Amino acid sequence: MEIIQRIESPNFDRKAIGIQFLIIHYTASTLQRATDLFSDPTSGVSCHLLIDETGNVYEIVKCWEGLAYKARHCGESHWNDGNRTWSDFNNISLGLELVNANGNIVEYTAEQYRALKQVIGHLKEKYPELNSPHRVLGHEHIAGWRGKADPGLMFDWAAFFESCYPGREIPKRQSICPIELQIALRKFLAVIPKDEKEATNFWHALSYITETCVSLLNRK
């Protein structure tokens, strides 16, 4: 499999990291807004790989050939796998973004799932730990308490694992977004602005609403 395009982000640390996990995100924006954000040095955010709606794959921070630099895609994060608690996921994981306005109410495309299968197959050859399906998580699983809700309710984890890890024990990956919140958010689909710029701002605001609600619901 070949990378379609390399869009180098300035938001990374030029040091090799040991890959233990793959973290799946959604962009909460269009492809253009996402690449603009990752290319902006003032944003401070990046990812390793990005898959657009048509299945094109982009490398944002070096990782494809088996040497991964530290991207900035997780923020404060932790996960207990039943044996130990992992933290600081920027230092131990690859970040993969799927272009999707809000994965709790917008479906992912068949092309994205097909590209994911190819990408996972390639990454398993480069990073041995990723041969375990238990090493693939969503942003919501490691930072849901901060309001992170991606890849969200619309991401088909069962189909993903069946496609990328056939015959393996399937881990439980439950979305942090409540169904009741999803129902409320879906009402916004009827009022999406037609103007492209306004629509971009609309989805950005809806992402903020989603994260704020999820954060409040998960405060301890």
Characterization of this structure:
The chain has 220 residues and is an alpha/beta fold. The chain has a single domain (5-217), classed as 3-Layer(aba) Sandwich (Lysozyme-like). Helix content is 31%, strand content 17%. The chain is built from 6 helices and 10 strands; from the N terminus they run E-E-E-H-E-E-E-E-E-E-H-E-H-H-H-H. It has a 6-stranded mixed beta sheet with strand order 1-5-4-9-3-10. It has a two-stranded antiparallel ribbon with strand order 2-6. Strand 4 (49-51) and strand 5 (57-59) form a beta hairpin. The radius of gyration is 16 Å and the shape is globular. It starts with a strand and ends with a helix.
Order of helices and strands: EEEHEEEEEEHEHHHH
Total strands: 10
* CATH architectural label: 3-Layer(aba) Sandwich
CATH class, anyone? Alpha Beta
Largest sheet geometry: 6 strands, mixed
Unreliable runs, pLDDT <50, ≥5 residues?
none
Please indicate the count of domains.
1
In CATH, the topology is named Lysozyme-like
- CATH H-level superfamily: Peptidoglycan recognition protein-like
Q: Helical proportion?
A: 25-40%
- Residue-averaged pLDDT: 96
The strand order across the widest sheet is: 1-5-4-9-3-10
Which class best fits the helix and strand makeup? alpha/beta
Strand content: 15-25%
What characteristics describe this protein?
17% strand; 220 residues; 6 helices; six-stranded mixed β-sheet; alpha/beta; two-stranded antiparallel ribbon; globular; Lysozyme-like
